Amino acid sequence: MAKKMMKNSVSVLSALVLVVASATSMAGGVDVANSGNGRLKLSSKLFLGLAQQRAEKNGVTSKEAIGVSLDRAYFALKYKIDPVWSLGFTSDATVDTRLSSKQTRLYVKKAYLKGTLAREAQLRLGVIATPWVGYEDKLFKHRYVSKSYVDRKKFDSSADAGVALAGKLGAGFLSYDVAMVNGAGYSKISPSQTMDLNMRVGIYPVKGLTLDANYRDGYLGDKKLGVLDAPKQTTLQTLATFGGAAYRIGVGYVNHEKVAGSVTTTDIGVIAWGWLKLNKWGAFARFEQTDTDQSGVSVTEQESRYVVGAEYAYNKQVRFSLAVDHANTDQTGFVTGETKTKDRVGLYSVVKF
User: Fold this and answer.
1) How far is 196 from 271, CA to CA, in rounded Å?
2) Which residue among 47, 161, 214, 245 has its CA within the 20 to 30 Å range from the CA of 138?
3) Coil/strand/helix, residue 223
4) What pTM, to 2 d.p., does this model score?
Protein backbone atom coordinates (compact mmCIF):
# COMPACT_ATOMS: atom_id res chain seq x y z
CA MET A 1 0.00 0.00 0.00
CA ALA A 2 2.86 2.37 0.84
CA LYS A 3 4.37 1.93 -2.64
CA LYS A 4 1.04 2.74 -4.27
CA MET A 5 0.62 5.85 -2.10
CA MET A 6 4.16 6.99 -2.89
CA LYS A 7 3.55 6.57 -6.64
CA ASN A 8 0.40 8.70 -6.51
CA SER A 9 2.15 11.42 -4.53
CA VAL A 10 5.26 11.62 -6.70
CA SER A 11 3.16 11.82 -9.87
CA VAL A 12 2.56 15.51 -9.27
CA LEU A 13 5.95 16.24 -7.71
CA SER A 14 7.15 18.55 -10.48
CA ALA A 15 4.15 20.86 -10.16
CA LEU A 16 4.72 21.39 -6.46
CA VAL A 17 8.43 21.95 -6.95
CA LEU A 18 7.72 24.82 -9.37
CA VAL A 19 5.28 26.43 -6.94
CA VAL A 20 7.62 26.25 -3.99
CA ALA A 21 10.83 27.18 -5.80
CA SER A 22 9.26 30.41 -7.02
CA ALA A 23 9.31 31.70 -3.44
CA THR A 24 13.10 31.53 -2.95
CA SER A 25 14.33 35.01 -2.30
CA MET A 26 15.66 35.66 1.21
CA ALA A 27 16.31 33.85 4.51
CA GLY A 28 16.11 34.92 8.14
CA GLY A 29 13.66 37.76 7.62
CA VAL A 30 13.92 41.23 6.12
CA ASP A 31 14.64 44.53 7.88
CA VAL A 32 12.04 46.94 6.54
CA ALA A 33 12.38 49.98 8.79
CA ASN A 34 14.86 51.58 11.17
CA SER A 35 14.28 54.58 13.42
CA GLY A 36 16.83 55.45 16.08
CA ASN A 37 17.23 52.36 18.24
CA GLY A 38 14.08 50.83 16.73
CA ARG A 39 14.17 48.16 14.02
CA LEU A 40 11.27 46.36 12.30
CA LYS A 41 11.85 42.91 10.83
CA LEU A 42 9.41 40.81 8.75
CA SER A 43 9.60 37.08 8.09
CA SER A 44 7.41 34.26 6.81
CA LYS A 45 7.41 30.46 6.76
CA LEU A 46 5.22 28.02 4.81
CA PHE A 47 4.74 24.29 5.32
CA LEU A 48 3.45 22.84 2.04
CA GLY A 49 2.69 19.18 1.46
CA LEU A 50 1.48 16.81 -1.21
CA ALA A 51 0.41 13.59 0.45
CA GLN A 52 -1.94 10.67 0.44
CA GLN A 53 -3.60 9.75 3.73
CA ARG A 54 -5.37 6.55 4.61
CA ALA A 55 -7.01 5.31 7.81
CA GLU A 56 -8.23 1.80 8.60
CA LYS A 57 -10.30 0.42 11.45
CA ASN A 58 -10.13 -3.32 12.04
CA GLY A 59 -8.65 -3.77 8.56
CA VAL A 60 -11.40 -1.82 6.77
CA THR A 61 -10.65 1.54 5.13
CA SER A 62 -12.49 4.28 7.01
CA LYS A 63 -10.97 7.44 5.49
CA GLU A 64 -8.85 8.28 2.47
CA ALA A 65 -7.63 11.54 0.93
CA ILE A 66 -4.94 12.84 -1.42
CA GLY A 67 -3.91 16.35 -2.38
CA VAL A 68 -1.85 19.43 -1.63
CA SER A 69 -2.13 20.85 1.88
CA LEU A 70 -1.08 24.09 3.50
CA ASP A 71 -0.04 22.70 6.86
CA ARG A 72 1.16 26.05 8.18
CA ALA A 73 1.58 29.62 6.93
CA TYR A 74 3.33 31.89 9.40
CA PHE A 75 3.78 35.63 9.00
CA ALA A 76 5.79 37.37 11.68
CA LEU A 77 6.99 40.81 12.59
CA LYS A 78 9.42 41.78 15.30
CA TYR A 79 10.08 45.31 16.43
CA LYS A 80 13.10 46.14 18.55
CA ILE A 81 12.23 49.18 20.65
CA ASP A 82 15.66 49.51 22.29
CA PRO A 83 18.41 47.14 23.52
CA VAL A 84 16.09 45.88 26.30
CA TRP A 85 12.51 45.87 25.01
CA SER A 86 10.98 44.38 21.88
CA LEU A 87 7.61 43.17 20.68
CA GLY A 88 6.58 40.38 18.35
CA PHE A 89 3.54 39.22 16.42
CA THR A 90 3.00 35.99 14.48
CA SER A 91 -0.12 34.89 12.61
CA ASP A 92 -0.74 31.22 11.83
CA ALA A 93 -2.94 30.06 8.96
CA THR A 94 -3.56 26.36 8.47
CA VAL A 95 -5.89 23.98 6.70
CA ASP A 96 -7.21 21.49 9.25
CA THR A 97 -5.42 18.28 8.26
CA ARG A 98 -7.98 15.90 9.77
CA LEU A 99 -9.43 13.79 6.99
CA SER A 100 -12.99 14.73 7.99
CA SER A 101 -12.35 18.49 7.94
CA LYS A 102 -11.89 21.05 5.14
CA GLN A 103 -11.74 24.20 7.25
CA THR A 104 -9.08 26.89 6.95
CA ARG A 105 -8.17 28.50 10.27
CA LEU A 106 -6.32 31.70 11.12
CA TYR A 107 -4.86 32.25 14.59
CA VAL A 108 -2.79 34.76 16.47
CA LYS A 109 0.15 32.47 17.21
CA LYS A 110 2.18 35.01 19.18
CA ALA A 111 1.67 38.57 20.35
CA TYR A 112 4.08 39.52 23.10
CA LEU A 113 6.31 42.03 24.83
CA LYS A 114 9.83 40.84 25.60
CA GLY A 115 12.32 42.39 27.99
CA THR A 116 15.94 41.23 27.87
CA LEU A 117 16.85 42.35 31.35
CA ALA A 118 20.04 40.30 31.32
CA ARG A 119 21.41 37.13 29.75
CA GLU A 120 20.15 35.38 32.87
CA ALA A 121 16.65 36.88 32.78
CA GLN A 122 14.38 37.45 29.76
CA LEU A 123 10.75 38.33 30.40
CA ARG A 124 7.91 37.47 27.98
CA LEU A 125 4.32 38.64 28.40
CA GLY A 126 1.32 38.04 26.13
CA VAL A 127 0.70 35.15 23.73
CA ILE A 128 4.12 33.55 24.01
CA ALA A 129 6.05 30.46 22.93
CA THR A 130 5.78 27.73 25.55
CA PRO A 131 9.01 26.33 27.05
CA TRP A 132 9.13 22.90 25.37
CA VAL A 133 7.51 22.37 21.95
CA GLY A 134 9.43 24.94 19.93
CA TYR A 135 12.65 24.03 21.73
CA GLU A 136 12.42 20.35 20.71
CA ASP A 137 11.33 21.33 17.17
CA LYS A 138 14.57 23.29 16.73
CA LEU A 139 16.61 20.25 17.77
CA PHE A 140 14.67 17.82 15.56
CA LYS A 141 14.67 20.27 12.59
CA HIS A 142 11.81 18.51 10.77
CA ARG A 143 8.71 20.08 12.26
CA TYR A 144 7.34 20.60 8.75
CA VAL A 145 7.00 16.81 8.47
CA SER A 146 6.17 15.81 12.04
CA LYS A 147 5.13 17.54 15.26
CA SER A 148 6.77 16.77 18.59
CA TYR A 149 5.19 14.02 20.68
CA VAL A 150 3.39 16.21 23.25
CA ASP A 151 2.19 18.58 20.52
CA ARG A 152 0.76 15.73 18.45
CA LYS A 153 -0.90 14.17 21.52
CA LYS A 154 -2.25 17.59 22.57
CA PHE A 155 -0.56 17.34 25.97
CA ASP A 156 0.96 20.76 25.30
CA SER A 157 0.72 23.63 22.82
CA SER A 158 3.53 25.46 21.04
CA ALA A 159 2.20 28.84 22.22
CA ASP A 160 -0.20 30.11 24.89
CA ALA A 161 -1.24 33.28 26.67
CA GLY A 162 0.85 33.87 29.76
CA VAL A 163 4.02 35.22 31.32
CA ALA A 164 7.45 33.61 31.35
CA LEU A 165 10.97 34.16 32.61
CA ALA A 166 13.89 32.46 30.86
CA GLY A 167 17.65 32.68 30.79
CA LYS A 168 21.05 31.01 30.74
CA LEU A 169 23.26 30.54 33.78
CA GLY A 170 26.83 29.46 34.41
CA ALA A 171 28.28 30.54 31.05
CA GLY A 172 25.54 28.63 29.25
CA PHE A 173 25.91 25.40 31.26
CA LEU A 174 22.28 25.62 32.39
CA SER A 175 19.15 27.15 30.87
CA TYR A 176 15.66 27.59 32.25
CA ASP A 177 12.25 28.67 30.96
CA VAL A 178 9.42 28.96 33.48
CA ALA A 179 5.94 30.04 32.34
CA MET A 180 2.50 30.49 33.84
CA VAL A 181 -0.02 30.11 31.01
CA ASN A 182 -3.80 30.12 30.57
CA GLY A 183 -3.53 26.51 29.48
CA ALA A 184 -5.75 26.01 26.41
CA GLY A 185 -3.14 27.04 23.84
CA TYR A 186 -3.02 29.89 21.35
CA SER A 187 -6.24 28.79 19.63
CA LYS A 188 -8.20 29.61 22.80
CA ILE A 189 -6.49 32.24 24.91
CA SER A 190 -9.36 33.25 27.22
CA PRO A 191 -8.61 33.14 30.99
CA SER A 192 -10.07 30.50 33.32
CA GLN A 193 -10.11 30.03 37.10
CA THR A 194 -6.47 29.01 37.30
CA MET A 195 -3.25 29.09 35.29
CA ASP A 196 -0.98 26.20 34.37
CA LEU A 197 2.68 25.82 35.27
CA ASN A 198 4.90 24.95 32.29
CA MET A 199 8.67 24.83 32.80
CA ARG A 200 11.83 23.46 31.20
CA VAL A 201 15.33 23.09 32.62
CA GLY A 202 18.31 22.17 30.45
CA ILE A 203 21.91 21.18 31.20
CA TYR A 204 24.69 21.23 28.58
CA PRO A 205 27.76 19.55 30.14
CA VAL A 206 29.79 19.16 26.91
CA LYS A 207 29.54 20.56 23.41
CA GLY A 208 26.77 18.90 21.41
CA LEU A 209 25.07 17.22 24.39
CA THR A 210 21.69 18.50 25.63
CA LEU A 211 19.88 17.14 28.71
CA ASP A 212 16.42 18.62 29.27
CA ALA A 213 13.41 18.04 31.50
CA ASN A 214 9.94 19.54 31.25
CA TYR A 215 7.14 19.66 33.82
CA ARG A 216 3.62 20.82 33.09
CA ASP A 217 0.74 20.88 35.59
CA GLY A 218 -2.76 22.32 35.26
CA TYR A 219 -6.19 22.08 33.66
CA LEU A 220 -5.42 23.16 30.06
CA GLY A 221 -8.02 25.94 30.36
CA ASP A 222 -10.89 23.65 31.40
CA LYS A 223 -11.26 24.77 35.03
CA LYS A 224 -14.11 27.29 35.00
CA LEU A 225 -16.73 28.49 37.45
CA GLY A 226 -19.57 25.98 37.61
CA VAL A 227 -17.58 23.17 35.98
CA LEU A 228 -17.20 20.27 38.39
CA ASP A 229 -14.40 17.72 38.15
CA ALA A 230 -12.45 19.56 35.44
CA PRO A 231 -9.72 17.16 34.27
CA LYS A 232 -6.33 17.82 35.86
CA GLN A 233 -3.36 17.00 33.63
CA THR A 234 0.29 16.56 34.53
CA THR A 235 3.15 15.91 32.12
CA LEU A 236 6.74 15.03 32.94
CA GLN A 237 9.18 14.47 30.11
CA THR A 238 12.91 14.19 29.54
CA LEU A 239 15.01 14.41 26.38
CA ALA A 240 18.69 13.73 25.77
CA THR A 241 20.28 14.61 22.41
CA PHE A 242 23.77 14.64 20.97
CA GLY A 243 25.09 16.00 17.70
CA GLY A 244 26.24 18.99 15.74
CA ALA A 245 25.73 20.69 12.40
CA ALA A 246 25.77 17.43 10.40
CA TYR A 247 23.71 15.12 12.62
CA ARG A 248 21.78 14.77 15.86
CA ILE A 249 20.16 11.87 17.70
CA GLY A 250 17.67 12.09 20.55
CA VAL A 251 15.86 9.82 23.01
CA GLY A 252 13.01 10.86 25.27
CA TYR A 253 10.51 9.69 27.85
CA VAL A 254 7.05 11.12 28.58
CA ASN A 255 4.69 10.42 31.48
CA HIS A 256 1.29 12.08 31.11
CA GLU A 257 -1.51 11.70 33.64
CA LYS A 258 -5.07 12.93 33.28
CA VAL A 259 -7.41 12.79 36.28
CA ALA A 260 -11.10 13.34 35.48
CA GLY A 261 -13.26 12.67 38.53
CA SER A 262 -12.57 9.11 39.65
CA VAL A 263 -10.96 8.11 36.33
CA THR A 264 -7.20 8.34 35.85
CA THR A 265 -5.64 7.88 32.41
CA THR A 266 -1.87 7.42 32.16
CA ASP A 267 0.17 7.64 28.95
CA ILE A 268 3.75 6.40 28.94
CA GLY A 269 5.66 7.43 25.84
CA VAL A 270 9.13 6.50 24.56
CA ILE A 271 10.60 8.56 21.71
CA ALA A 272 13.70 8.17 19.57
CA TRP A 273 14.69 10.30 16.59
CA GLY A 274 17.67 11.26 14.51
CA TRP A 275 18.75 13.14 11.38
CA LEU A 276 21.80 13.25 9.15
CA LYS A 277 22.87 15.93 6.67
CA LEU A 278 25.41 15.44 3.86
CA ASN A 279 25.77 18.66 1.85
CA LYS A 280 22.35 19.23 0.24
CA TRP A 281 21.05 15.74 1.02
CA GLY A 282 19.88 14.26 4.27
CA ALA A 283 17.78 11.63 6.00
CA PHE A 284 15.73 11.50 9.18
CA ALA A 285 13.67 9.06 11.22
CA ARG A 286 11.38 9.22 14.23
CA PHE A 287 9.88 6.46 16.40
CA GLU A 288 7.23 6.79 19.12
CA GLN A 289 5.69 4.12 21.34
CA THR A 290 2.77 4.82 23.70
CA ASP A 291 1.13 2.61 26.33
CA THR A 292 -2.13 4.02 27.70
CA ASP A 293 -3.78 2.67 30.87
CA GLN A 294 -7.03 3.73 32.50
CA SER A 295 -8.14 3.06 36.05
CA GLY A 296 -10.71 0.29 36.30
CA VAL A 297 -9.75 -1.15 32.88
CA SER A 298 -7.50 -4.20 32.50
CA VAL A 299 -6.70 -3.61 28.82
CA THR A 300 -3.75 -1.44 27.72
CA GLU A 301 -4.06 0.60 24.54
CA GLN A 302 -0.80 0.49 22.59
CA GLU A 303 0.28 2.79 19.78
CA SER A 304 3.46 2.60 17.72
CA ARG A 305 4.45 5.18 15.11
CA TYR A 306 7.38 5.72 12.81
CA VAL A 307 8.33 8.46 10.36
CA VAL A 308 11.11 7.91 7.82
CA GLY A 309 12.19 10.39 5.17
CA ALA A 310 14.85 11.64 2.77
CA GLU A 311 15.53 15.37 2.48
CA TYR A 312 16.92 17.71 -0.16
CA ALA A 313 17.92 21.30 0.66
CA TYR A 314 17.44 23.42 -2.46
CA ASN A 315 18.97 26.34 -0.58
CA LYS A 316 18.63 27.99 2.84
CA GLN A 317 15.07 29.05 2.06
CA VAL A 318 13.59 25.83 0.65
CA ARG A 319 13.78 22.19 1.73
CA PHE A 320 11.92 19.13 0.45
CA SER A 321 11.30 15.77 2.06
CA LEU A 322 9.83 12.53 0.81
CA ALA A 323 8.47 10.81 3.90
CA VAL A 324 6.37 7.91 5.13
CA ASP A 325 4.36 8.24 8.37
CA HIS A 326 2.74 5.08 9.78
CA ALA A 327 0.86 4.67 13.07
CA ASN A 328 -0.77 1.53 14.44
CA THR A 329 -2.98 1.27 17.53
CA ASP A 330 -4.03 -1.97 19.22
CA GLN A 331 -6.84 -2.30 21.77
CA THR A 332 -8.23 1.03 20.56
CA GLY A 333 -10.45 2.62 23.18
CA PHE A 334 -9.42 -0.18 25.60
CA VAL A 335 -11.43 -2.72 23.58
CA THR A 336 -9.69 -6.06 23.03
CA GLY A 337 -9.17 -6.81 19.35
CA GLU A 338 -9.93 -3.28 18.13
CA THR A 339 -7.20 -1.95 15.83
CA LYS A 340 -6.59 1.31 13.99
CA THR A 341 -3.92 2.29 11.46
CA LYS A 342 -3.03 5.60 9.85
CA ASP A 343 -0.73 6.03 6.86
CA ARG A 344 0.57 9.23 5.34
CA VAL A 345 3.08 9.36 2.51
CA GLY A 346 4.16 12.20 0.27
CA LEU A 347 6.29 15.22 -0.43
CA TYR A 348 6.70 17.93 2.23
CA SER A 349 8.42 21.29 2.02
CA VAL A 350 9.30 24.30 4.11
CA VAL A 351 9.73 27.72 2.47
CA LYS A 352 10.88 30.75 4.42
CA PHE A 353 12.35 34.21 4.23
Assistant:
1) 25
2) 161
3) coil
4) 0.88
